[in-house]
Design brief:
The protein is of the alpha/beta class. The chain has a single domain, classed as Alpha-Beta Barrel (TIM Barrel), CATH 3.20.20.140. The strands form three sheets. Strands 7-4-3-2-1-10 form a six-stranded mixed beta sheet. The chain is globular, with a radius of gyration of 16 Å. The two termini are 16 Å apart.
Length: 239
Protein backbone atom coordinates (compact mmCIF):
# COMPACT_ATOMS: atom_id res chain seq x y z
CA UNK A 1 0.00 0.00 0.00
CA UNK A 2 1.07 3.58 -0.68
CA UNK A 3 -0.12 6.67 1.20
CA UNK A 4 -0.48 9.56 -1.24
CA UNK A 5 -1.30 13.18 -0.52
CA UNK A 6 -3.97 14.57 -2.79
CA UNK A 7 -6.08 17.49 -3.96
CA UNK A 8 -8.57 16.22 -6.53
CA UNK A 9 -10.55 19.38 -7.33
CA UNK A 10 -8.47 22.19 -8.84
CA UNK A 11 -9.36 24.76 -11.49
CA UNK A 12 -7.13 26.47 -14.02
CA UNK A 13 -7.41 29.61 -16.13
CA UNK A 14 -9.86 27.72 -18.33
CA UNK A 15 -12.57 28.22 -15.71
CA UNK A 16 -13.93 31.77 -16.05
CA UNK A 17 -14.19 32.09 -12.27
CA UNK A 18 -10.53 31.11 -11.95
CA UNK A 19 -7.45 33.27 -11.94
CA UNK A 20 -5.61 33.91 -15.20
CA UNK A 21 -2.41 33.11 -13.27
CA UNK A 22 -3.68 29.58 -12.66
CA UNK A 23 -2.07 28.17 -15.78
CA UNK A 24 -1.48 24.42 -15.89
CA UNK A 25 2.24 24.98 -15.30
CA UNK A 26 1.63 27.22 -12.29
CA UNK A 27 -0.96 24.87 -10.80
CA UNK A 28 1.15 21.75 -11.17
CA UNK A 29 4.32 23.57 -10.16
CA UNK A 30 2.62 24.82 -6.99
CA UNK A 31 1.40 21.30 -6.22
CA UNK A 32 4.95 20.02 -6.63
CA UNK A 33 6.39 22.73 -4.38
CA UNK A 34 3.81 21.92 -1.72
CA UNK A 35 4.69 18.25 -1.92
CA UNK A 36 1.40 16.86 -3.21
CA UNK A 37 1.58 13.41 -4.78
CA UNK A 38 -1.57 13.52 -6.88
CA UNK A 39 -3.92 16.24 -8.09
CA UNK A 40 -6.86 16.42 -10.47
CA UNK A 41 -7.57 19.22 -12.92
CA UNK A 42 -11.32 19.78 -12.89
CA UNK A 43 -12.35 22.85 -14.83
CA UNK A 44 -16.01 23.64 -15.36
CA UNK A 45 -17.48 21.43 -18.11
CA UNK A 46 -14.15 21.08 -19.93
CA UNK A 47 -10.88 19.14 -19.79
CA UNK A 48 -9.01 21.20 -22.38
CA UNK A 49 -6.24 22.28 -20.00
CA UNK A 50 -5.58 18.69 -18.90
CA UNK A 51 -3.08 17.96 -21.73
CA UNK A 52 -0.72 20.72 -20.60
CA UNK A 53 -1.24 19.88 -16.92
CA UNK A 54 -0.41 16.21 -17.47
CA UNK A 55 2.74 17.08 -19.40
CA UNK A 56 3.76 19.36 -16.52
CA UNK A 57 2.97 16.57 -14.08
CA UNK A 58 5.38 14.27 -15.87
CA UNK A 59 8.07 16.95 -15.68
CA UNK A 60 7.47 17.84 -12.02
CA UNK A 61 6.80 14.37 -10.65
CA UNK A 62 3.15 14.96 -9.77
CA UNK A 63 0.42 12.52 -10.78
CA UNK A 64 -2.24 14.55 -12.63
CA UNK A 65 -5.66 12.97 -13.05
CA UNK A 66 -7.65 14.46 -15.95
CA UNK A 67 -11.11 15.55 -14.94
CA UNK A 68 -14.10 17.81 -15.41
CA UNK A 69 -16.38 19.52 -12.91
CA UNK A 70 -19.70 18.90 -14.59
CA UNK A 71 -22.68 21.13 -13.92
CA UNK A 72 -25.89 19.13 -14.19
CA UNK A 73 -29.22 20.52 -15.36
CA UNK A 74 -30.14 20.97 -11.68
CA UNK A 75 -26.90 23.00 -11.30
CA UNK A 76 -25.36 20.34 -9.09
CA UNK A 77 -21.58 20.21 -9.42
CA UNK A 78 -20.08 16.76 -9.98
CA UNK A 79 -16.36 16.02 -10.15
CA UNK A 80 -15.76 13.50 -12.94
CA UNK A 81 -12.36 11.81 -13.09
CA UNK A 82 -11.00 9.73 -15.96
CA UNK A 83 -8.29 7.08 -16.36
CA UNK A 84 -6.70 8.60 -19.47
CA UNK A 85 -6.41 11.94 -21.19
CA UNK A 86 -8.23 10.66 -24.28
CA UNK A 87 -11.20 9.57 -22.15
CA UNK A 88 -11.31 12.94 -20.39
CA UNK A 89 -11.16 14.87 -23.65
CA UNK A 90 -13.89 12.66 -25.10
CA UNK A 91 -16.18 13.44 -22.19
CA UNK A 92 -15.18 17.11 -22.36
CA UNK A 93 -16.41 17.26 -25.95
CA UNK A 94 -19.62 15.47 -24.94
CA UNK A 95 -20.25 17.86 -22.03
CA UNK A 96 -19.59 20.96 -24.13
CA UNK A 97 -22.15 19.75 -26.68
CA UNK A 98 -24.70 19.55 -23.85
CA UNK A 99 -23.81 22.97 -22.41
CA UNK A 100 -26.22 25.89 -22.70
CA UNK A 101 -25.08 27.79 -25.84
CA UNK A 102 -24.56 31.15 -24.13
CA UNK A 103 -21.50 33.11 -25.18
CA UNK A 104 -18.98 34.11 -22.55
CA UNK A 105 -18.37 37.77 -21.82
CA UNK A 106 -14.82 37.90 -20.42
CA UNK A 107 -15.35 41.40 -19.04
CA UNK A 108 -18.10 40.04 -16.78
CA UNK A 109 -17.27 36.39 -16.15
CA UNK A 110 -13.55 36.16 -16.86
CA UNK A 111 -11.40 34.57 -19.52
CA UNK A 112 -11.60 30.91 -20.54
CA UNK A 113 -8.08 30.23 -21.70
CA UNK A 114 -6.69 27.03 -23.16
CA UNK A 115 -2.97 27.16 -22.39
CA UNK A 116 0.04 24.99 -23.20
CA UNK A 117 2.71 23.84 -20.76
CA UNK A 118 4.77 26.99 -21.45
CA UNK A 119 1.89 29.37 -20.54
CA UNK A 120 1.18 30.23 -24.17
CA UNK A 121 -2.51 30.98 -24.70
CA UNK A 122 -3.71 28.72 -27.50
CA UNK A 123 -7.31 29.94 -27.68
CA UNK A 124 -10.34 30.99 -25.67
CA UNK A 125 -13.53 28.97 -25.36
CA UNK A 126 -16.65 30.70 -26.71
CA UNK A 127 -19.55 29.37 -24.65
CA UNK A 128 -19.73 30.19 -20.96
CA UNK A 129 -18.39 27.14 -19.14
CA UNK A 130 -20.02 27.85 -15.76
CA UNK A 131 -23.50 27.34 -17.20
CA UNK A 132 -25.48 24.16 -16.65
CA UNK A 133 -25.57 21.30 -19.11
CA UNK A 134 -28.78 19.45 -19.93
CA UNK A 135 -27.41 16.31 -18.24
CA UNK A 136 -29.45 15.40 -15.17
CA UNK A 137 -27.75 14.26 -11.96
CA UNK A 138 -29.22 10.78 -12.31
CA UNK A 139 -28.01 10.63 -15.91
CA UNK A 140 -24.36 11.31 -15.06
CA UNK A 141 -23.38 7.62 -14.62
CA UNK A 142 -24.73 6.80 -18.07
CA UNK A 143 -23.03 9.86 -19.56
CA UNK A 144 -19.58 9.07 -18.18
CA UNK A 145 -19.74 5.29 -18.66
CA UNK A 146 -18.43 5.27 -22.27
CA UNK A 147 -15.43 7.25 -21.02
CA UNK A 148 -14.79 5.04 -17.95
CA UNK A 149 -15.40 8.03 -15.72
CA UNK A 150 -15.77 8.17 -11.95
CA UNK A 151 -18.59 10.33 -10.55
CA UNK A 152 -17.99 12.25 -7.31
CA UNK A 153 -20.71 14.68 -6.14
CA UNK A 154 -18.79 17.85 -5.30
CA UNK A 155 -18.74 19.73 -1.98
CA UNK A 156 -22.03 18.17 -0.85
CA UNK A 157 -22.08 20.31 2.30
CA UNK A 158 -21.84 23.58 0.37
CA UNK A 159 -24.92 25.81 0.43
CA UNK A 160 -24.89 26.32 -3.35
CA UNK A 161 -24.33 24.11 -6.43
CA UNK A 162 -24.29 20.91 -4.39
CA UNK A 163 -26.33 17.73 -4.24
CA UNK A 164 -28.07 18.69 -1.01
CA UNK A 165 -28.41 22.44 -1.61
CA UNK A 166 -30.06 21.90 -5.00
CA UNK A 167 -31.75 18.49 -4.74
CA UNK A 168 -31.93 18.01 -1.00
CA UNK A 169 -31.56 14.23 -1.08
CA UNK A 170 -29.69 11.35 -2.66
CA UNK A 171 -31.76 10.11 -5.63
CA UNK A 172 -32.80 6.48 -5.09
CA UNK A 173 -31.21 5.39 -8.39
CA UNK A 174 -27.77 6.72 -7.36
CA UNK A 175 -24.72 4.54 -7.85
CA UNK A 176 -21.83 6.85 -6.87
CA UNK A 177 -19.24 5.35 -4.53
CA UNK A 178 -17.46 8.49 -3.36
CA UNK A 179 -18.46 12.04 -2.48
CA UNK A 180 -16.61 15.25 -1.68
CA UNK A 181 -17.04 17.05 1.64
CA UNK A 182 -15.94 20.66 1.82
CA UNK A 183 -15.58 20.71 5.62
CA UNK A 184 -14.88 17.34 7.18
CA UNK A 185 -16.42 18.56 10.44
CA UNK A 186 -19.76 18.11 8.66
CA UNK A 187 -19.10 14.48 7.70
CA UNK A 188 -20.70 12.75 10.70
CA UNK A 189 -23.90 14.80 10.43
CA UNK A 190 -24.10 14.17 6.70
CA UNK A 191 -23.80 10.43 7.15
CA UNK A 192 -26.38 10.42 9.94
CA UNK A 193 -28.82 12.38 7.78
CA UNK A 194 -28.22 10.49 4.52
CA UNK A 195 -27.90 6.73 4.92
CA UNK A 196 -26.56 6.30 1.37
CA UNK A 197 -23.35 8.13 2.33
CA UNK A 198 -22.45 5.85 5.21
CA UNK A 199 -20.48 3.30 3.20
CA UNK A 200 -19.25 5.71 0.52
CA UNK A 201 -15.68 6.89 0.28
CA UNK A 202 -15.16 10.58 1.06
CA UNK A 203 -12.55 13.05 -0.11
CA UNK A 204 -11.99 16.68 0.78
CA UNK A 205 -10.39 19.08 -1.69
CA UNK A 206 -9.51 22.73 -2.14
CA UNK A 207 -11.75 23.50 -5.14
CA UNK A 208 -8.95 25.97 -5.77
CA UNK A 209 -9.55 28.74 -8.30
CA UNK A 210 -6.29 30.48 -7.32
CA UNK A 211 -2.92 28.80 -7.01
CA UNK A 212 -2.42 29.91 -3.41
CA UNK A 213 -5.64 28.08 -2.46
CA UNK A 214 -4.29 24.65 -3.47
CA UNK A 215 -4.17 22.35 -0.46
CA UNK A 216 -1.04 21.52 1.47
CA UNK A 217 -0.30 17.79 1.73
CA UNK A 218 -2.62 17.20 4.70
CA UNK A 219 -5.10 14.73 3.17
CA UNK A 220 -4.08 11.20 2.21
CA UNK A 221 -5.37 8.14 0.39
CA UNK A 222 -4.03 4.62 0.88
CA UNK A 223 -3.77 3.12 -2.59
CA UNK A 224 -2.48 -0.20 -3.89
CA UNK A 225 -0.66 1.51 -6.73
CA UNK A 226 0.78 5.03 -6.89
CA UNK A 227 -0.90 5.94 -10.16
CA UNK A 228 -4.07 7.32 -11.70
CA UNK A 229 -5.44 3.79 -11.86
CA UNK A 230 -4.61 3.19 -8.21
CA UNK A 231 -6.48 6.30 -7.04
CA UNK A 232 -9.52 5.68 -9.24
CA UNK A 233 -9.69 2.04 -8.20
CA UNK A 234 -9.84 2.99 -4.52
CA UNK A 235 -12.49 5.67 -5.00
CA UNK A 236 -14.65 3.48 -7.21
CA UNK A 237 -15.31 0.98 -4.40
CA UNK A 238 -17.34 1.58 -1.26
CA UNK A 239 -16.12 0.46 2.15
Amino acid sequence: MFSVSYDLHIHTCLSPCGDDMSTPANVVGTAALKGLDVIAITDHNSALNCPAAMRCGEAYGVIVIPGVELTTEEEVHVVCLFPTLDKALGFSEYAYAHLQPVKNNPAIFGHQQVVDEDDNILREIDNLLINATDIGFSDVPKAIAPFDGLMIPAHVDKDTTSLFSNLGFVPPDSTFTCFECKNMKNLHALRMQHEYLRDCRVITDSDAHYIDHINDPVNFLDVKEKSIAGVLDLLSHKF
